[in-house]
Structure formats: structure tokens, C-alpha cells
Amino acid sequence: MFKEETGMVKNATFIEDVSKHLKKDEKFIVACQSGRRSLMASNSLIAEGFTGVKDMGGGFTAWVECGQKAVLD
């Protein structure tokens, strides 16, 4: 999703972009800050045949609130 003046807009090349880096049977986690965008992204990927998709429910906000660490390199 991209933030535009009119609101959030779906990335038209999202599936194509992901497909360049991940195989449809590869396991991976989709996450965002609150969990809303990652849920939409996960659903889109699953609808396109990706089988190893896991959504981080609640996003990084919930992750940190549960006492987990988030380290950025």
C-alpha cells in the first residue's frame, strides 16, 4: 500500500515484486506496524498461490507490547 493524498492505494505490482524474490512455496512472515496492511498483503499473496505465508497479527506494535525485541541493522 502507498499513502496518497486520497488515502491508501494498493501497489499494482506487489505480487510481481514479491515473486521476483520469493518462491510460492517458500515460508516467510509478512508484517507491518499495526497488522492491517500485512493482513491485506498476506491475503493477496495467498490468493495468488503463495503457500508459506504467515501474517504477524497485530504487527510490530503488538510484538513490542508483548515484550519482544525489534532490532534494525
From TrEMBL:
Positions of transmembrane segments: none
Residues of the signal peptide: none
Domain annotation Rhodanese: ranges: 10-72
CDD domains noted in UniProt: RHOD
InterPro entries: Rhodanese-like_dom, Rhodanese-like_dom_sf, Thiosulfate_ST/Rhodanese-like
Protein name: Rhodanese domain-containing protein
Lineage, uppermost ranks: Eukaryota, Viridiplantae, Streptophyta, Embryophyta, Tracheophyta
One Pfam family from the record: Rhodanese
